[in-house]
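Catalogue entry: protein

Sequence with per-residue tokens
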Amino acid sequence: KQWYQRRVAITAGDTHIFVVHSQTDAIPECPSNHLAVWSGYSLLSLTAGFVVTEQDLGDTGSCVERFDIMAMMACQGNDVCRQAVRTERSYWLVNSDLEDPPLKPMADIDSITPYISRCVACMGTQAPIVKHSTDVAAPVCDPGWSELWTGFSYIMGKSGKMGMGQQLKSVGSCHETMSNPMFIECNGRGTCSFFTNNIDFWLARNPDLLQPGMWGMGSVYNGVDDIKDRGVARCVVCLKTPYAEGQVFQLGGGRYYMNAAPE
């Protein structure tokens, strides 16, 4: 009984934080039984020259409280730092509700901010996991796990020679909304633009694994609806279902009771 009491105290104090991105200009809500810690703007990556610091979209570094076109400076050994004078760039997830993104660079921050996706950092007592499916059917959570959200499997964005990838084990790879483009590029000159040569990569469906060669060679999907219906892979984010009172689970060969003291 004494061991059980210590076990409950450790379990109750366990916390996990992950980030949810709305891909709109509205701050998203956390899943049920989760606490919103802070809200912000969805940062995908920072680059300097050809050096990339990509952000895990499921982790807290991807949700910054204040949108800044270029929040990075370069410091040298002579105690001098310079901001926004080199080839630094920042990349942000976009608000997918806005249609027909402008082709010309935008310099007014009040005009740029509505194009930036909002995010929230959520705290719970368990770590979520993500499952991806390249089949026609969307994946489902396994028995004992509950669904937080379903979405589309995002791999990375590419700008020029630089890629900004996501780990498929991260909830940041599973987006409820698929949009094209997924990100906007901002530079040290103080402007943000949608470039037509920037590319997004998504996990693709492969319904027939027995078909020889590379499946889908030459397949072209026109329009977001067609891509969603036939092309892009689906995903689901799952959370371990809490044990019912008195329920037994196995750990290291022993029998322990999570929510009720053993008799």
